[in-house]
């Protein structure tokens, strides 16, 4: 299934049904009076978060959603039927934005959570509504009120506990594959990961968390370089970030600062999240390189980085334990 995390759709709620002018016509009953009924309510447009979806691809090809108009009133004081609602099923974690892409209309983070995006119009009054002691035969009936309509943006932000960040080829996909049952594409060239990937990391029978891997960042990503920074939205909900740095690169400090600059350029509170820095690919480094790069990185970040190898698994359990403890503290568990 193709991954799509953003879509623009047009929504139109149903108009209300029209009221009618009618009079009671029955044998032996003179001056039966007005009995025109009111119109029915138009259908609403509702977004609902459902389990089992992880993409907005359904809204790539169907972009217009309109609810039906309410039924018109009828004689004998009969009210028109209310129309059914139109329900848009979206993945859990979907944010619904107004056309300006800034105003948040709804944030659906729980399965079954709903939000009314457009309300249907009320039905118009029939002439029975207007009868009074001085106006016993009104000939006034109102049309139904129009339903709301708008363009909205659907933006998916995956629900994960921890997020992986780093430059391309830092070993993020290898780390995800080594710690979970996820099987992302792994290769020795940049931008192997084109779409976010999720994996469930199980430490033991009672502890587990969801880890998100996003495409690599390069300098200028917040200005559109590489794959851009739009995928950073998928780690906005994470409690902690795991920053992987390729230990085989000559200057890990510059690598660290590049990624941090892109996180700051994106915003969204990412730079304020707890961060765990790990120097990856220790199996490909000489002892001298390990020592010098760890010292340089420690001076730059103000704490000792962790040393791991996603390929051999060395140091990985310690990182997972730190991640789990940080998530537990951040979630207040």
TrEMBL record:
<protein>
    <recommendedName>
        <fullName>GTPase Obg</fullName>
        <ecNumber>3.6.5.-</ecNumber>
    </recommendedName>
</protein>
<feature type="binding site">
    <location>
        <begin position="280"/>
        <end position="283"/>
    </location>
    <ligand>
        <name>GTP</name>
    </ligand>
</feature>
<keyword id="KW-0547">Nucleotide-binding</keyword>
<dbReference type="GO" id="GO:0043022">
    <property type="term" value="F:ribosome binding"/>
</dbReference>
<dbReference type="GO" id="GO:0005737">
    <property type="term" value="C:cytoplasm"/>
</dbReference>
<feature type="binding site">
    <location>
        <begin position="166"/>
        <end position="173"/>
    </location>
    <ligand>
        <name>GTP</name>
    </ligand>
</feature>
<dbReference type="InterPro" id="IPR006073">
    <property type="entry name" value="GTP-bd"/>
</dbReference>
<dbReference type="InterPro" id="IPR036726">
    <property type="entry name" value="GTP1_OBG_dom_sf"/>
</dbReference>
<feature type="binding site">
    <location>
        <begin position="213"/>
        <end position="216"/>
    </location>
    <ligand>
        <name>GTP</name>
    </ligand>
</feature>
<dbReference type="GO" id="GO:0042254">
    <property type="term" value="P:ribosome biogenesis"/>
</dbReference>
<dbReference type="InterPro" id="IPR014100">
    <property type="entry name" value="GTP-bd_Obg/CgtA"/>
</dbReference>
<feature type="binding site">
    <location>
        <begin position="309"/>
        <end position="311"/>
    </location>
    <ligand>
        <name>GTP</name>
    </ligand>
</feature>
<dbReference type="GO" id="GO:0000287">
    <property type="term" value="F:magnesium ion binding"/>
</dbReference>
<dbReference type="Pfam" id="PF01926">
    <property type="entry name" value="MMR_HSR1"/>
</dbReference>
<keyword id="KW-0378">Hydrolase</keyword>
<dbReference type="InterPro" id="IPR027417">
    <property type="entry name" value="P-loop_NTPase"/>
</dbReference>
<keyword id="KW-0460">Magnesium</keyword>
<comment type="function">
    <text>An essential GTPase which binds GTP, GDP and possibly (p)ppGpp with moderate affinity, with high nucleotide exchange rates and a fairly low GTP hydrolysis rate. Plays a role in control of the cell cycle, stress response, ribosome biogenesis and in those bacteria that undergo differentiation, in morphogenesis control.</text>
</comment>
<feature type="binding site">
    <location>
        <position position="173"/>
    </location>
    <ligand>
        <name>Mg(2+)</name>
    </ligand>
</feature>
<dbReference type="GO" id="GO:0005525">
    <property type="term" value="F:GTP binding"/>
</dbReference>
<feature type="domain" description="OBG-type G">
    <location>
        <begin position="160"/>
        <end position="328"/>
    </location>
</feature>
<dbReference type="InterPro" id="IPR006074">
    <property type="entry name" value="GTP1-OBG_CS"/>
</dbReference>
<feature type="domain" description="Obg">
    <location>
        <begin position="1"/>
        <end position="159"/>
    </location>
</feature>
<feature type="binding site">
    <location>
        <begin position="191"/>
        <end position="195"/>
    </location>
    <ligand>
        <name>GTP</name>
    </ligand>
</feature>
<dbReference type="GO" id="GO:0003924">
    <property type="term" value="F:GTPase activity"/>
</dbReference>
<keyword id="KW-0479">Metal-binding</keyword>
<feature type="binding site">
    <location>
        <position position="193"/>
    </location>
    <ligand>
        <name>Mg(2+)</name>
    </ligand>
</feature>
<keyword id="KW-0342">GTP-binding</keyword>
<dbReference type="InterPro" id="IPR006169">
    <property type="entry name" value="GTP1_OBG_dom"/>
</dbReference>
<comment type="similarity">
    <text>Belongs to the TRAFAC class OBG-HflX-like GTPase superfamily. OBG GTPase family.</text>
</comment>
<keyword id="KW-0963">Cytoplasm</keyword>
<comment type="subunit">
    <text>Monomer.</text>
</comment>
<dbReference type="InterPro" id="IPR045086">
    <property type="entry name" value="OBG_GTPase"/>
</dbReference>
<dbReference type="InterPro" id="IPR031167">
    <property type="entry name" value="G_OBG"/>
</dbReference>
<dbReference type="Pfam" id="PF01018">
    <property type="entry name" value="GTP1_OBG"/>
</dbReference>
